[in-house]
Amino acid sequence: MKNPNEPLPSLNALRAFEAASRHLSFRRAAEELGVTEGAVGQHIRGLETALGLKLFERQPRRLALTENGQSYSASVRRAFDLLVEATQALRPQALKLAVSVTPTFAAKWLIPRLPDFTAAHPEIDLRIVATERISHFQTDGVDLAVRYGSPPFGAGLNAELLFDDILIAVAAPRAMAGARKSNGIVARHALLHDAHNLWPQFLAQLHQPLPSAAEKNIRFNQTSLAIDAALEGQGIALAHWAFVARDVAAGRLVRVFDDELHTGAGFYLVFPRKLQHPGPVSQLRDWLHHQASLSTQIAAA
């Protein structure tokens, strides 16, 4: 029977041995542990002395485990794994929530506001899934989605309006320098289109024709790219007011027309009726609604 009072090798020596047994190199073990190669060698020699047996065969340009070393390394590795598991079990794990959004919504609205949420809820680990593809809640492990369109979005899903789809035309101030809001402004500037292609509808509301010249139309597959092009002075973008509200407030973009296009669609928070984490999802929903109301105030200012 083992004597429980028999002293064990030092933890540092065991760590050095475990690392060296994986790498079969004192040098690489030292790099991993942040110590010198000599310190690793000293730990190994002390361990071999304490155990009364060799753990490594020192061969030219290589290191090999002895039979005893192989057996001991497996046991030591299991012991370290148990220590890691026991330590992690004591630590509170961050609650993970996955949110599915479009790339434009993520880049132009959500990401600039995320520090506010993470500061208020450090216990929630958010995973942002930015994709044009409609995520499925069960198969993709999504807890909450922001979807564009009109409800219903599917059986068993709740939908809450975040904000209506209201589009405005914006451009960089330098691109509009000296320009007046007249029929000629559209003909003189490139129109920056996105995948929704709502310029014809917007111009029809203004009773203006759509430019036919190819050089007057630049097309992007995402609204965020059209907005970026407008910021660079490359033309006029048609974008949701919430995506450009900060840029307009800061003077990086200006409204080209006073008119707005109400598409009848909107951005909705969509989530299953049966939630895996109802409390945290509710906190996230409340925060998103609050941020949407703040966006409205910025746009109205």
UniProtKB/TrEMBL annotation:
The keyword Mitochondrion does not apply. InterPro entries: LysR-type_TF_proteobact-type (IPR058163), LysR_HTH_N (IPR000847), LysR_subst-bd (IPR005119), WH-like_DNA-bd_sf (IPR036388), WH_DNA-bd_sf (IPR036390). Keywords: DNA-binding, Transcription, Transcription regulation. It holds the Pfam family LysR_substrate. Residues 9-66 form the HTH lysR-type domain. PROSITE patterns: HTH_LYSR. Signal peptide: none annotated. One of its GO terms (biological process) is DNA-templated transcription. The keyword Transcription applies. One of its GO terms (molecular function) is DNA-binding transcription factor activity. Transmembrane segments: none annotated. Belongs to the LysR transcriptional regulatory family. PANTHER family: GLYCINE CLEAVAGE SYSTEM TRANSCRIPTIONAL ACTIVATOR, HTH-TYPE TRANSCRIPTIONAL REGULATOR. This is Transcriptional regulator GcvA. The gene is gcvA.
